Amino acid sequence: MTQSDLARGEKPAGLAVIGAGYWGPNLVRTAQATPALRLEWLCDLDEERARAVLGGYTTVRTTASYQDVLDDPAVAAVAIATPAATHFDLVRAALEAGKHVLVEKPLTPTVHESAKLVDLARRSGLVLMCDHTYCYTPAVRKIRELVRGGEIGEIQFVDSVRINLGLVQPDVDVLWDLAPHDLSILDHVLPEGVTMDAVAASGADPIDAGRLCMAHLSVWLSTGVMAHVHVNWLSPTKIRTTVIGGSRRTIVWDDLNPVQRLAVYDRGVDLAPAGSLDPAERHQALISYRVGDVLVPALPEREALREVMAEFAAAIAEGRRARTDGGAGLRVVALLEAASRSAAAGGRLVPVSEVNVPVEENA
Fold first, then answer.
1. Nearest-angstrom CA–CA distance, 17 and 102
2. 74, 109, 179, 332: least CB-packed within 10 angstroms?
3. C-alpha dist (Å) from residue 355 to 109, 196, 219, 250
4. Are 147 and 191 in contact, with CB atoms under 8 Å apart?
């Protein structure tokens, strides 16, 4: 729903936020700043915590009962920010109650559950959207434009590093905590028709936390190209960089560099075709190193989560799939499940088809 829709008298969609913990307050803040949404409820098992998030001057109601939210006809949609293990039951109940759903990553802890939810949303004609927040950043939007517009040529490699001294999560390992960001970004920016088909992963738990605290993923694309992802909770320095190398140009995204967050390098390696070489030169492949200009695109300053909320509201109003819909969430969960199987099996290559469940079979 746009501002012009509101001017024509279109009512904002009633929204309830579920979960007042780490991420819930951010959803509350951005929902209240989205004209096309009207925040009705904040639901948390600890209702006092929910009240503290809202403050004393608010018309938003609080409750510890999820059923209160589902029974309210003023609520058209819910935004779920609870532990991943609770997502399946909460999302299913909301969809069965006729509510549109925005849910935090990962969609669910298993492919089987995710596929059921995607199918239920499709059959119900409801929006199921995953909050893959990075896909709504100006940097990733520009990367998608450059990749899909052919500016960098054919992708030759991807290297992504997401490390920091972070909280060891009580319910998921580092793969399921950090890698969804990188995998969802790749899923979002890869050219049409290019898929992530297989994963090999290895990890370690050097502090005896009982779960992987650092991991490396190698993801094979359908084009034969390899994408590499490094995630780590134990690094004393925080690094958020992604390099996407193409046959024409290379994108370097440093999310922690506000001065040059995104740069496009006209640098690379060219291999001369054998037919173009003199007979005397064919004993060696001539490699030429291309060194050209560096372009630093101007990026607008927009908060990604506000863009997430705007997209959720627009998908509801327009009756269409969201940009990061349930299918995107399902694809990421399939990659994570394949990565977990690979890590448990000593790093063997696991095809995504080995864990995928056809959505149509999950009625």
1. 9
2. 74
3. 13, 13, 15, 32
4. yes
Asked if 295 and 250 touch (Cβ cutoff 8 Å), the reply is no
Mean pLDDT of 193-221: 96
Instruction: Write out pLDDT tens, residues 139-156.
Output: 999 999 999 999 999 999
Please enumerate in sequence order all residues whose Cβ is within 8 A of that of 82, keeping only pairs 6 or more positions apart, or say none.
Answer: 18, 19, 21, 90, 104
Give whole-number Cα distances, 263 to 58, 59, 134, 219, 233, in Å.
Answer: 44, 45, 17, 24, 27
Would you say 33 and 96 are in contact if contact means Cβ atoms under 8 Å apart?
A: no
Counting Cβ atoms within 10 Å, is residue 102 exposed (0-12), middle (13-18) or buried (19+)? buried
Give the C-alpha separation, 231 to 57, whole Å.
Answer: 41
Count of Cβ atoms closer than 10 Å to residue 295 Cβ: 14
| Cα–Cα distance, 49 to 69 (Å, whole number) | 17
Report pLDDT digits (tens) over 84-124: 999 999 999 999 999 999 999 999 999 999 999 999 999 99
Write down how long the chain is.
Answer: 363
